[in-house]
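Risk register update: the risk of archive-format incompatibility is retired. Evidence:
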Amino acid sequence: MYELLSAYVPPPAQVLDLAAGSGAFARRLLDAGYQVHAADIDLEGWSVQDVPISHVDCNCDVWDLPMKNFSAIVAIELIEHLENPTQFLRVAQQHLDQGGVLIFTTPNVVSLQSRRRIITTGEFAFFGRHLLFTTGHRSLLPFWLAEDLLTSQGYSVLERRFLGHQGMILRPGRRAWLALIVPLIDLLLMVIGRRIPREAGLMTAVAYVAGKGG
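Archived output:
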């Protein structure tokens, strides 16, 4: 994520780190020379005293922030937790400078692993039964839907990048026969799904850089 941000918005730009957690990414940005403001719904455990943090519920249509606009807004693995991703995109755009960018990641639900799960269980990877109550994942965004939502809200999609290699099929505790049959299934899925980006097959997440519309 840092590489994406620095490629489009170099320091010392103003960056809003949403769903900042304990502050690991905010610390990296601060050390790189960015002017950083953080926001989260839960402020307990915040550990970066040099970075101000605001209480923000991204499900709401108003974010209480000390300044209106930022050169970049970063949201790592946030949008899939929200009740209304379209509203989130709309509000985020209101807090971007002209020419600013929104950078976010979300689980890649078109990976080969996910496609196998659909066939066998009817569930997408990262969005299986009861995961709403454990991970909080509620909004499933395949790459094409994320791009349509961005476009519908006036963003320009500057870059899409698939991230995070899947684990190996043959892992401790798994049956050896899976190492033989799963690659054949994956090959068939790749042939059938030739309109799905090839690089999406073995990646667990997708990242977007979206520019504020005119």
